[in-house]
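Quick one:
INPUT:
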């Protein structure tokens, strides 16, 4: 009964903005991975370069440079997976003892809330961080699959297996990178969801800022302009 009473202290604004955040997170991820042909995202543009990388790799002897790049990519996924895991541990510790957080948050908002409310709010942060951790781990593993496939590509350009296997390696590389980007987006939204501690309206502001940040880096950033210039796309 106490839980129901405490839970009732959340308003419809809280529920609405949390739902909005999850919808924006999912929708933005879909848009980035499925943009229009006339306005490709950085993710899509880089996918084409990953395919080009595997085509060029066929003629490169030796392939030490390619192995070094793959090692660098896997180190990146390992770093972010470890970071997410540490953050998850920190959030779980706070869920177990919300008093330090409650003291800071209540000092800002000048409002008191039951401990269960802070635990629910931390649960949203935990959701995004956990998803990011799982995406980074899977990305690391798929990069490993890609490394094996690259090693299996024959050195003979005329071998009928060479180009099909290089194409498979490219698609594995793209899938790994896609999951890595999903993990990064989860981390962005995890940081944004911390604003809920200050109330529903700060959460709405965080949603707008995080969505704009993620969108702009995929569709209006300087790296995107550089990629478009090299690929000959219209600069839109």
């Amino acid at each position: 009964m106490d839980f129901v009473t405490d839970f009732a202290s959340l308003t419809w604004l809280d529920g609405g903005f949390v739902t909005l955040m999850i919808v924006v997170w999912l929708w933005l991820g879909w848009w980035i991975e499925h943009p229009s042909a006339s306005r490709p995202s950085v993710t899509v543009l880089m996918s084409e370069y990953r395919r080009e990388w595997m085509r060029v790799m066929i003629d490169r002897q030796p392939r030490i440079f390619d192995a070094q790049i793959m090692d660098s990519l896997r180190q990146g996924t390992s770093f972010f997976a470890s970071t997410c895991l540490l953050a998850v541990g920190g959030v779980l510790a706070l869920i177990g003892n919300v008093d330090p957080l409650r003291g800071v948050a209540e000092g800002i908002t000048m409002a008191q809330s039951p401990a269960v409310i802070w635990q629910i709010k931390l649960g949203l942060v935990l959701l995004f961080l956990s998803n990011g951790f799982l995406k980074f781990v899977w990305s690391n593993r798929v990069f490993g699959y890609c490394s094996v496939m690259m090693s299996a590509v024959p050195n003979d350009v005329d071998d009928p297996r060479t180009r099909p296997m290089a194409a498979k390696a490219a698609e594995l590389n793209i899938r790994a990178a896609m999951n890595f980007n999903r993990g990064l987006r989860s981390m962005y939204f995890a940081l944004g969801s911390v604003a809920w501690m200050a109330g529903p309206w700060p959460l709405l502001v965080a949603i707008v800022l995080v969505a704009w940040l993620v969108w702009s880096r995929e569709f209006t950033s300087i790296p995107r302009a550089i990629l478009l210039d090299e690929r000959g796309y219209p600069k839109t």
